[in-house]
Amino acid sequence: MGMILGLTGGIATGKSTVVSVFKSLNFPIVDADVIAREIVEVGTPALEKIVAVFGLEVLNQDGSLNRKKLGSIVFSDEKKRKMLNEVLSPFLRDEILSQIDQKKNESSLVVVDIPLLFEGGYDQFVDKVAVVYVPEATQLVRLMKRDNLTQDEAQRRINSQLSIEEKKQKADIVFDNQKSIQETEKIVQKWVSKNIFE
């Protein structure tokens, strides 16, 4: 039985940088974003539920989910964002837990990459939580640049999550991502070698 490490951060704090280090060390990753995309593919019960709640306008012509359209609806309306989370949560949770279960026998460390780890109550399913941290001001600048958003749009997306400072407080491990990618990689590798996961 290995360690189940929950990995989270805020939007644009650099979580994918940290995940890629774990991948390069061949640890299995349970990726909530990938799962979230898979559970809403054409013909899935989750997509049918989304359509039942938000209407056909959130679909592309081929029947697949129009993420941009759905995103613009839920990011501008707190109530609708909560509705979407309520629709998707059970499907997401089932698949995440089933993948954790499957992978924990394959490795001494399984990394569970969940952006909304605390918000979704997933901290109860992992042994330790690591947060990828940058201050909110850095987060805002990175997000505007990365997704080509106005300051207002970026701020709304950041505000839709638990603040990065709160996540940092709740974390067992903090991976500071304020310097270069190389620095962050070193921090993660050092943590792994200190915990000697074979």
Automatic annotation (TrEMBL):
Q: Which UniProt keywords apply?
A: ATP-binding, Coenzyme A biosynthesis, Cytoplasm, Kinase, Nucleotide-binding, Transferase
Write down the PROSITE patterns for this protein, in alphabetical order. DPCK
Q: According to its UniProt record, in which pathway does this protein act? A: Cofactor biosynthesis; coenzyme A biosynthesis; CoA from (R)-pantothenate: step 5/5
Q: Is Kinase included in the keywords of this UniProt record?
A: yes
Does the record bear Transferase in its keywords?
Answer: yes
- Identify which top EC class this enzyme belongs to: transferase
Q: Where mainly located? A: cytoplasm
* Catalysed reactions, as listed in the record: 3'-dephospho-CoA + ATP = ADP + CoA + H(+)
Q: Which InterPro entries match?
A: Depp_CoAkinase, P-loop_NTPase
Q: Which PANTHER family match?
A: BIFUNCTIONAL COENZYME A SYNTHASE-RELATED, DEPHOSPHO-COA KINASE-RELATED
Q: Which named protein is this?
A: Dephospho-CoA kinase
Species of origin reads Enterococcus silesiacus
